[in-house]
Amino acid sequence: MRAKRFSVPVVALVVLIASAVPAGAGPQFVGGTPTVGDFGTVALNGSAQLTTATIDPFQVLDDSITPAGWNVTLQIPDLQNGTGPDCSTGATASIPGANIAMDAPNVSPADGLTSMTGVTSAGFVDFTSPQIIIDAQNGDGGGTYNVSPALLRMIVPDSTVAGTYCSVGTLAINVGS
Q1: Is the pLDDT assigned to residue 11 strictly greater than 70?
Q2: Is residue 119 part of a domain?
Q3: Position 49 in a domain
Q4: CA–CA distance, 103 with 65 (Å, rounded to integer)
Q5: Quick one: which of 141, 148, 143 has its CA closest to 118?
Q6: Local structure of 98: helix, strand or coil
Q7: Which residue has the higher pLDDT, 102 or 23?
Q8: What is the layout of strands, in order, in the sheet containing 58-62?
């Protein structure tokens, strides 16, 4: 018996910036919305499959006079095989967002005036609720930071129904820590 192979393009993540602040008013992404790539196509063969996606490197700037701290969060709900703005229209199957993982992003000062004091990063498994991937404590985080995110990794379960799946992810900067 030959195994039937299906091509499953898995995920076009649409990244929304949940908060935007004017220059001088606090933390913000430099140069606009960070770009999130699609997860790679997998061939269903009866075993769970690993696929990855990238988030392009980006910068965070906090040019507020008195830094109140900030954090960057990432949220990726369940992926669905539907359409529409949230991918749920006509959806009949899903891939759990809990199957997505990312190691801590690499964060470094972009210039000699920026300090890493009070700025940390973290990796997570399960982005179905917002996870703080970068955190600047109150009173810290002033300046410009280079961020190189790790690969997003997703396990596609062996029981996944063939199709194209999508989700709407949110990468946001929040004031306060």
Answers
A1: no
A2: yes
A3: yes
A4: 32
A5: 141
A6: helix
A7: 102
A8: 27-30, 58-62, 143-148, 106-109
Report the greatest alpha carbon distance in the chain.
69
Q: What's the number of domains the chain is made of?
A: 1
**In the predicted model, what is the mean pLDDT of residues 122-139?**
95
Range of the domain at 47: 6-175
Q: Which residue has the tokens 């606009």?
A: 32
Specify if 1 maps to a domain. Answer: no
What whole-number distance in Å separates Cα of residue 167 and Cα of residue 18? 15
Residue range 58-103, pLDDT digits in tens:
999 999 888 889 999 999 989 999 888 888 999 999 999 999 999 9
- Residue corresponding to tokens 């949940």: 18
Domain-located, residue 137: yes
Average pLDDT over residues 20-26: 58
